[in-house]
UniProtKB/TrEMBL annotation:
Name assigned to this protein: Riboflavin synthase
SUPFAM superfamilies assigned: Riboflavin synthase domain-like
Taxonomic path: Bacteria, Bacillati, Bacillota, Clostridia, Eubacteriales
Lumazine-binding domain mapped to chain residues: 1-96, 97-193
Top-level taxon of origin: Bacteria
Length: 213
């Protein structure tokens, strides 16, 4: 479990690609502290397991499924990546509940300044947008952000200068692909709610009352 509060920006040291998988070696500093082989580290929002540790980096396997669902395939040697260690049981939630399981990939459609803030508009598939709500939480490349606006083809977030400086957002451009993870709570609620009919799942006030909400 993660919080979406990036600890540091690392860089890709090497990528060893197989036929349907890869091994990433990521140069880092902060996230190496007290990290052991088998621990989890979020790399651009993707939960990866440390397989090797080096004085200045760590290596992790990337499965076929991960490559298919994320933007990791776009990375090259030298790419900047957001890093966060798994949250300790006695830690504080600075962001929101993040599983590190990417739902899909979005594309930056626009970047604009608004005084000190910077707005990022992300286009995404309907399958992802159904779980995106205004003022709700979204994870972009492992960064916990608040949705400021939702449109038919995408959504927008407004970021503060600190977030841009402390993450790889300052190296993102229009047209770049980003990893997206929606709020896991909404997905579980949808899954657990009973269907009105075998072919229809209608969320109404009456249904919520029957389910004890």
């Amino acid at each position: 479990m993660f919080t979406g509060i990036v600890e540091e920006v690392g860089t890709i040291k090497s990528i060893n690609r197989g036929q349907h998988s890869a091994v990433l070696t990521v140069r880092a500093k902060t996230v190496l502290e007290e990290t052991r082989i088998g621990d989890s580290i979020s790399v651009n929002g993707i939960c990866l397991t440390v397989r090797q540790l080096f004085p200045d980096s760590f290596a992790a396997d990337v499965m076929h499924e991960t490559l298919n669902r994320s933007a990791l395939a776009q990375l090259t040697v030298g790419s900047a990546v957001n890093l966060e260690r798994a949250m300790p049981a006695n830690g504080r939630f600075g962001g929101h509940i993040v599983a590190g399981h990417v739902d899909g990939v979005g594309r930056i459609a626009n970047i604009r300044k608004d005084d000190t803030a910077i707005w990022y508009t992300i286009h995404a598939d309907p399958a992802i947008l159904r779980y995106v709500v205004e003022k709700g939480s979204i994870t972009i490349d492992g960064i916990s952000l608040t949705v400021a606006a939702v449109e038919p083809t995408g959504f927008s977030v407004s970021t503060i200068p600190h977030t841009v400086r402390q993450t790889n957002l300052n190296q993102r451009h229009k047209g770049d692909f980003v990893n997206l993870e929606t709020d896991v709570v909404g997905k579980y609620i949808e899954r657990l709610l009973p269907s009105e009919t075998p072919k229809q799942n209608t969320l109404t006030k009456e249904m919520l009352l029957r389910c004890g909400f």
